[in-house]
Automatic annotation (TrEMBL):
Pfam families: PTR2
Cellular compartments per GO CC: membrane
Membrane topology: Multi-pass membrane protein
Protein source organism: Solanum verrucosum
Transmembrane segments: 63-82, 94-114, 134-153, 184-203, 209-235, 332-353, 365-385, 406-425, 458-480, 492-514, 534-554
GO molecular function: transmembrane transporter activity
Principal localisation: membrane
Name of the protein this chain belongs to: LATD/NIP
Claim: Glycosyltransferase is one of the keywords in the record: no
Cellular compartment(s): Membrane
InterPro entries xref list: MFS_trans_sf, POT_fam
Domain of life: Eukaryota
Similarity-based family: Belongs to the major facilitator superfamily. Phosphate:H(+) symporter (TC 2.A.1.9) family.
Length: 573
């Protein structure tokens, strides 16, 4: 009776939604996400300049603040996905996120046009600048917080919300249609990123902050308007519960049943399984978690229909294996954090501002637009690897993707070490040139040094990130069941959040230690007096130590798991 009523409810919902969704909703969703990406990513490249110029922050303090902002934005992505799946539903989550970003960007724009919302400019004959008041800092942080909330709610839910509109199991071409949607979605995101680091940054550099921040706010107005206009056309799936809740339930249930001797419960009948699950028993590793799915008292723990009475006391074998998958992934996932820390540093913009950035005599590349080199290197390398190197490498390695995911992650760490070392060498040369030219006390002076010096390190970072992202997501996907493929991208986003926190801690620690006793900080706003090159050498050292750590984890991973969760994939087959 229960299954029949559920089928009737699904058929009823399908008939209600049959006139909604479909391709007609795609322009609304893709335009919403593209405008949000264009607006938010357009703020990041030059934000450290805005903070150091108008809020009189030191370079290290501004970098720490931006790292914390990035960590909050990425960390809230998991929280937004949890609320969307458990309570709000994806439509409400995307709507709340988009409106929150709009309000945050409007507040940020107001700081450029209302003088009372930011500190007074430094006087020509002042020895020190006016500090930021608590109210002014609170308004700035409020804008950052609202934008972070918007990012956390919008990004993890937007792509899934679009897939909901195309989900139709009766259509034989449904899988191809959804795959096409993903391609167009990511293509639009790529175009938005390119426009953000070129057009938006150019507007900020040449037309000032008032117009430069007004454009992202206007884009968010368009984003909100377009998304809400399409509301009558959307399929709005109800929240069904979050995966993360199930992981917590396993931990709690295993703790509550810590008195059970796992070795005495080897009978398949003692484990609780979902009716449609092919998993008969939990795996042997992380055996302490197996207690969560052991049935102690069927009369107390199970309902008459066979379902669990309290999911915080008894979990299914599948839930236990999901948590184990997560724990298996953690060591290899953690090897990528230092690379992300190095890629995410914002100090390079101060180097660019002191270099000759002219391409032609009449055109100068904005300092904040050099991230385009990383994007171009990423794109070219992915295409080159997929179309040319994969067929060649697969003949020798026997791997269908040329190199295994773990091998690509290792290569990314080697390239990361090379990029940070090259960054340190370039900064040493730049700083020596500045001192020789007599610009030690003039950090804004432009040297007779071409911007081309910075191209190799940005290109290396682009190739390293391409290797790392694709390799990491494929590795995580190979360990998790197919039903949890989206968890791979969530883990990468979570890695960005942790890397930003590590970066903020590292920058703060280096600034405090090196400035002790009245010394000039390595990360001083005047990079000609500071030692940014020493900081890059420190990152190189940490990257090398991280590479050794990767080798240890790699040996353990290949020996124990061989890159696959055999239990899951055998069950799925």
């Amino acid at each position: 009776m229960g299954n029949k009523s559920e089928q009737e409810e699904l058929l009823l919902n399908h008939s209600k939604n049959s006139r909604k969704g479909g391709l007609i909703t795609m322009p609304f969703i893709i335009v919403n996400e593209s405008c949000e990406k264009l607006a938010s990513y357009g703020l990041l490249p030059n934000m450290i300049i805005y903070l150091t110029t108008f809020y009189h922050m030191e370079a290290a303090s501004a970098s720490v603040l931006l790292a914390l902002w990035t960590a909050l934005s990425n960390g809230l992505g998991l929280f937004g996905a949890f609320l969307s799946d458990s309570y709000l539903g994806r439509f409400r989550a995307v709507a709340i996120g988009t409106i929150s970003s709009l309000i945050g960007m409007c507040i940020l724009w107001l700081t450029t046009i209302i003088p009372q919302l930011r500190p007074l400019p430094c006087g020509q004959y002042q020895h020190g600048c006016n500090g930021t008041t608590a109210a002014q800092l609170a308004i700035l942080l409020c804008s950052f917080g609202l934008i972070a909330i918007g990012t956390g709610f919008n990004r993890p839910c937007s792509i899934a919300f679009g897939a909901d509109q195309l989900e139709n199991k009766e259509n034989p071409d449904n899988e191809r249609l959804i795959d096409s949607y993903f391609n167009w979605y990511y293509a639009s995101v790529g175009v938005s990123l390119v426009l953000a680091v070129t057009v938006i940054v150019y507007i900020q550099d040449h037309f000032g902050w008032q117009i430069g921040f007004a454009v992202p706010a206007l884009l968010m107005i368009i984003s909100v308007s377009i998304f809400l206009i399409g509301s009558p056309l959307y399929i709005k799936a109800k929240a069904r519960g979050s995966l993360f809740t199930g992981l917590f339930q396993v931990a709690v249930a295993a703790f509550r049943k810590r008195h059970i001797n796992v070795q005495l419960n080897n009978n398949d009948d003692c484990y609780y399984r979902e009716p449609e699950s092919n998993l008969l028993e939990p795996s042997a590793d992380f055996r302490c978690l197996n207690r969560a799915c052991i049935i102690e008292d069927p009369h107390m723990e199970l309902k008459p229909d066979g379902k669990v009475s309290n999911p915080w006391n008894l979990c299914s074998v599948e839930q236990v294996e999901l948590l184990k998958c997560f724990l298996r992934v953690l060591p290899m996932w953690s090897t990528c954090l230092i690379l992300l820390v190095a890629i995410g540093q914002t100090f390079s913009i101060f180097q660019m501002m002191t270099m000759d950035r002219h391409v032609f005599s009449l055109f100068e590349i904005p300092a904040g637009s050099f991230g385009i080199i990383t994007l171009i290197a990423w794109t070219i390398w992915v295409a080159l690897y997929d179309r040319i190197l994969v067929p060649l490498l697969s003949r020798y390695t026997g791997h269908p993707t040329g190199l295994s995911p773990v091998s690509r992650m290792g290569i990314s760490l080697i390239l990361g070490c090379m990029a940070t070392a090259l960054q340190a060498i370039t900064e040493t040369i730049r700083r020596n040139k500045a001192i020789e030219a007599g610009f030690e006390d003039d950090p804004n002076a432009v040297l007779n040094m071409s911007w081309m010096w910075l191209v190799p390190q940005f290109a290396l970072y682009g190739v390293a990130e391409a290797f790392n992202v694709v390799g990491q997501i494929e590795f995580i996907y190979s360990l998790f069941p197919k039903s949890m493929s989206s968890f791979a991208s969530a883990m990468y986003t979570f890695g960005l959040a942790i890397a930003s926190l590590i970066s903020s801690f590292l920058v703060s620690m280096v600034d405090n230690v090196t400035s002790a006793g009245g010394n000039t900080s390595w990360l001083a706003s005047n990079i000609n007096r500071g030692h940014l090159d020493y900081f890059y050498w420190l990152l190189t050292f940490l990257s090398f130590i991280n590479l050794l750590y990767f080798m240890v984890v790699y040996r353990f991973t290949v020996h124990h798991h061989d890159g696959r969760n055999s239990l899951y994939h055998e069950a799925e087959e």
